[in-house]
Amino acid sequence: MANFTAADIKALREATGAGMMDVKKALDEADGDRAKATEILRVKGLKGVTKREGRSASNGLVAARVQDGVGTLVEVNCETDFVAKGEKFGALADQVLDLAVAHQVADADALLAVQDGDKTVKDLLDEANASIGEKIEVRRVARLEGEHVTSYLHKTSPDLPAQIGVLVATTGGDEQIARDVAMHIAAFAPSVLSRDEIDPEVVENERRIAEATAKEEGKPEAALPKIVEGRVNGYFKENVLLEQPFAKEAKKTVKKVLDEAGATATGFARFKVGS
């Protein structure tokens, strides 16, 4: 019989995060040698990671930090909401955010390559995959600089971590208007700041669709230009932050509200877990 105690089992569980039965089997296989048992658990865990690669990780959380005029936003994914609200997953996400901030990364691939001691962020995720038993990945990272950068995190369910995260950069105005705009972005999901950022080919496609739809509806030929422009402007209102009706005062656009507050929005980022 292998020479190990309940204290050995407890210590190995705490060190690896593996389940009790897996720890006992590893210690049996290693004849009580804790270092060898750790290696066995790691090999088995990483084998499990390979099996999980094709699985969907559509739950998780978003985390944000603003430091010295720079905002960082990360989305860390897992497979189930049960894991998403666990302490271990939350601690991992905080560690990932810390490294993203410290190394000033702006995309997921760069973050995965960041070194933390003798391990990369990818190594940390693989170890978490092994110990937690789910596919875990960093899906997106955003980095935003500006005169003032404000973050906002929104919970879509009270028992889950934040599922929507926003960064918004502004000049002028005050903290309240910046937060109001960040909350608006969370709720209304604009895709760009201004219409200049939309690909002209996308606009022309919207125009063609609007014209074809109006003709299909039997609208008078003379009225088509006005109808088409109205529908294209509707597309802008749906997608362009500055042209959206403001969440707290729908008769005004976001740009109008910012102008009245003496503020200008210079950029934003918005993540929603799984979308």
TrEMBL record:
<dbReference type="InterPro" id="IPR009060">
    <property type="entry name" value="UBA-like_sf"/>
</dbReference>
<dbReference type="InterPro" id="IPR014039">
    <property type="entry name" value="Transl_elong_EFTs/EF1B_dimer"/>
</dbReference>
<dbReference type="InterPro" id="IPR018101">
    <property type="entry name" value="Transl_elong_Ts_CS"/>
</dbReference>
<keyword id="KW-0963">Cytoplasm</keyword>
<dbReference type="InterPro" id="IPR001816">
    <property type="entry name" value="Transl_elong_EFTs/EF1B"/>
</dbReference>
<feature type="domain" description="Translation elongation factor EFTs/EF1B dimerisation">
    <location>
        <begin position="71"/>
        <end position="274"/>
    </location>
</feature>
<dbReference type="GO" id="GO:0003746">
    <property type="term" value="F:translation elongation factor activity"/>
</dbReference>
<dbReference type="InterPro" id="IPR036402">
    <property type="entry name" value="EF-Ts_dimer_sf"/>
</dbReference>
<protein>
    <recommendedName>
        <fullName>Elongation factor Ts</fullName>
    </recommendedName>
</protein>
<feature type="region of interest" description="Involved in Mg(2+) ion dislocation from EF-Tu">
    <location>
        <begin position="80"/>
        <end position="83"/>
    </location>
</feature>
<keyword id="KW-0648">Protein biosynthesis</keyword>
<comment type="function">
    <text>Associates with the EF-Tu.GDP complex and induces the exchange of GDP to GTP. It remains bound to the aminoacyl-tRNA.EF-Tu.GTP complex up to the GTP hydrolysis stage on the ribosome.</text>
</comment>
<comment type="similarity">
    <text>Belongs to the EF-Ts family.</text>
</comment>
<dbReference type="Pfam" id="PF00889">
    <property type="entry name" value="EF_TS"/>
</dbReference>
<keyword id="KW-0251">Elongation factor</keyword>
